[in-house]
């Protein structure tokens, strides 16, 4: 996070907590490629337990976690069935195609991040038609980034999982912000992940760890993901320095996400009162506020520059759609100042 700014570009800008820095300094280390880093082993066991899966593997980033998962699920020539607004499709450099020889089959995403199940069923249906690339994996995202941090209802996930299982296809969840979803729903993360086969979760978003994600699922899948991680150059050695902060993230930082959600709500309500901005408050469910710049006299780049000149950083999602994210290090006072800055910048 750039300390001279109220930095709402992303929750990826969070800096490690004092407890994380302390844990990093004291971490017991070993060579993780030999499976001998005790801190990594503890983190992987903890993560697997929190999401109710047999095993987990630490990876460098959410992008690597999703790609390792897709490589572990699918084969060359198979389809990755996913939403047209998902992070895997939009922001991961086409990894499954570029490195895995798979193709993305995108389905329309509704306003809250769900994919219509009739279309999912059709996309996953087995076919004897040799023209058709077989489905390799179904992906969902929770919370949904580009939709504004929306949470998938448990009943929807359950139905999506049943649809995938009936087709003999695994459901992979991009759970970069799974703990935001859990806190918003008031449930444990495993109440969400019981409805998916595999999950990628990030330590380095709202949980404020400096680096790292985990991929969790059945043991045989995790071993394939571990091999894919090595293939991708992600076999790390004394990775306990990363894992130590990750353990603090999972044990100490989940509860405080409610504060980020309350701040995002304040921000969404403040922005909704500003002429020229439009906020769908129904989508302000977690720590992401997605809004539209509708003031026609103002170009998005000029609005962002006006905010920056007033000490506030936010980002864009393309066109007139903007995104502000609350996180560890952002207070209710910062949010109030950001709303004042947005009012001035939109004037
Ligand atoms: N998202 C980042 C950017 O890449 C857009 C952000 O600022 O929000 N899945 C989801 C849902 C994500 O939001 C992200 C990061 C990732 C995966 C990838 O994680 P990293 O950045 O660790 O590769």
Write a concise synopsis of the structure shown.
The chain is an alpha/beta fold.
Care to describe what's here?
The protein is of the alpha/beta class and 347 residues long. It has two domains: 6-13 and 256-346, Alpha-Beta Complex (Aspartate Aminotransferase, domain 1); 18-252, Type I PLP-dependent aspartate aminotransferase-like (Major domain) (Aspartate Aminotransferase, domain 2, 3-Layer(aba) Sandwich). 41% of the residues lie in helices and 17% in strands. The chain contains 14 helices and 13 strands. The strands form three sheets. Strands 2-8-7-6-5-3-4 form a seven-stranded mixed β-sheet, with helices on both faces. Helix 7 links the parallel strand 5 (135-141) and strand 6. Helix 13 crosses helix 14. It is globular, with a radius of gyration of 20 Å. The model has no long low-confidence stretch (mean pLDDT 97). The site of ligand TLP has 14 residues, from helix 3.
Structure keywords:
alpha/beta; Aspartate Aminotransferase, domain 1; Aspartate Aminotransferase, domain 2; 2 domains; seven-stranded mixed β-sheet; four-stranded antiparallel β-sheet; 14 helices; 17% strand; binds ligand TLP
């Amino acid at each position: 996070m750039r300390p001279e700014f109220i930095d709402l570009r992303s929750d990826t800008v969070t800096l490690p907590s004092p407890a994380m820095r302390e844990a990093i300094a004291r971490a017991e280390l070993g060579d993780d490629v030999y499976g001998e880093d005790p801190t990594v082993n503890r983190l992987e066991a903890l993560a697997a337990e929190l999401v109710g899966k047999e095993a987990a593997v630490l990876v460098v980033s959410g992008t690597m976690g999703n790609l390792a998962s897709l490589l572990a699920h699918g084969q060359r020539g198979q389809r990755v069935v996913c939403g047209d607004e998902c992070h895997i499709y939009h922001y991961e450099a086409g990894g499954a195609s570029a490195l895995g020889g798979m193709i993305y089959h995108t389905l329309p995403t509704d306003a809250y991040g769900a994919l219509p199940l009739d279309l999912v069923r059709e996309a996953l249906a087995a076919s004897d038609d040799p023209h058709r690339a077989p489905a390799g994996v179904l992906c969902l995202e929770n919370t949904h980034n580009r939709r504004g941090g929306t949470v998938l209802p448990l009943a929807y996930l359950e139905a999506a999982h049943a649809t995938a299982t009936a087709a003999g296809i695994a459901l992979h969840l991009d759970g970069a912000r799974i703990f935001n979803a859990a806190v918003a729903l008031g449930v444990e993360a495993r109440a969400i992940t019981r409805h998916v086969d595999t999950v990628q979760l990030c330590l380095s978003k709202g949980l404020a760890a400096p680096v790292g994600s985990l991929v969790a699922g059945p043991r045989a899948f995790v071993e394939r993901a571990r091999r894919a991680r090595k293939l991708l150059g992600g076999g790390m050695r004394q990775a306990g320095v990363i894992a130590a902060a990750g353990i603090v993230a999972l044990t100490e930082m989940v509860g405080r996400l409610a504060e980020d959600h309350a701040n995002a709500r304040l921000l969404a309500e403040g922005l909704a009162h500003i002429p020229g901005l439009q906020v769908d408050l129904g989508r302000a469910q977690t720590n992401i506020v997605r809004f539209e710049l509708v003031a026609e006299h103002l170009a998005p780049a000029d609005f962002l520059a006006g905010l920056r000149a007033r000490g506030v950083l936010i980002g864009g999602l393309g066109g007139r759609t903007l995104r502000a994210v609350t996180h560890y290090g952002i207070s209710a006072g910062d949010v109030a100042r950001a709303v004042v800055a947005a009012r001035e910048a939109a004037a």
